[in-house]
Amino acid sequence: DETEFRNFIVWLEDQKIRHYKIEDRGNLRNIHSDDWPKSFEKYMKDVNCPFKIHERQETVDWLLGLAVRLEYGDNADKYKDSTPDGAKNTDNTAKSAEPLINLDVNNPDFKAGVMALANLLQIQRHDDYLVMLKAIRILVQERLTQDAIAKAGQAKEGLPVALEKHILGFDTGDAVLNEAAQILRLLHIEELRELQTKINEAIVAVQAIIADPKTDHRLGKVGR
C-alpha cells in the first residue's frame, strides 16, 4: 500500500534514522503530495542508499539495516550482551549439533570460500552455497578424518564378478545402462550384507550383556 509505505519511511526517519533535522523533514512528511517521490528520491541520495526509487524491497531492507545499525550505535551497552529470544532456551549441545545455522550464506567471502573448497574437493556445484558446504563437511568426515584415511589405506582384495551371470530383472534398453544397473545392484547387496553383519554384532553384544553369566553363546549351550 502506497500510503503505508510512505508512512513507514517517515516513521523510520523520525524515530530511528534521524538524518534530517526536524525542520527539514517537511517534504518527506507530506505523504499526500504529488512531489513526495522526488522528496523520497532525494532522501535516498542523502542517506547514500545504493538502490533506485523503484527498487522498493531492496530499499526497505537497506533502510531497516541502517536503522538497526544506528539504533545499536546509540545503545551499544544495552544491546551488546543481548541474546535473541529464540536462542535463550537453546542448550549448547543443540548449537554445536548444527554449526552452520547462523552462517550468512549471502556473504561474498563465504561464497568464494565454499566455491574454492568445492573446486578443490571436486564437489558438484549447487545454487545453494549452504548445501555445498554441508556436502564438503560430509566428504571431510567420511574421507579425510584420520580413521577414514586409515580405513581407506587398508588393502581390500575382491573376487572378479561375471555380470552376465547376475539377472537384472528389467531392461533399460541400453546395454551400458543395464551393466551400470547390475553394478549398482551388486553394490547395494554388499551394503546390505555389511549392515546385516553390524546388526548381528549388535545383537551378540546385547545378548552378552543381558544373558545369564553361565551362558556361553560360542558353545551354543547354557549351563556349566
TrEMBL record:
Pfam families linked: RLL
By sequence similarity, the record places it as follows: Belongs to the RTRAF family.
Instruction: State the name under which the record lists this protein.
Output: RNA transcription, translation and transport factor protein
Biological source species: Tricholaema leucomelas (pied barbet)
Gene for this protein? Answer: Rtraf
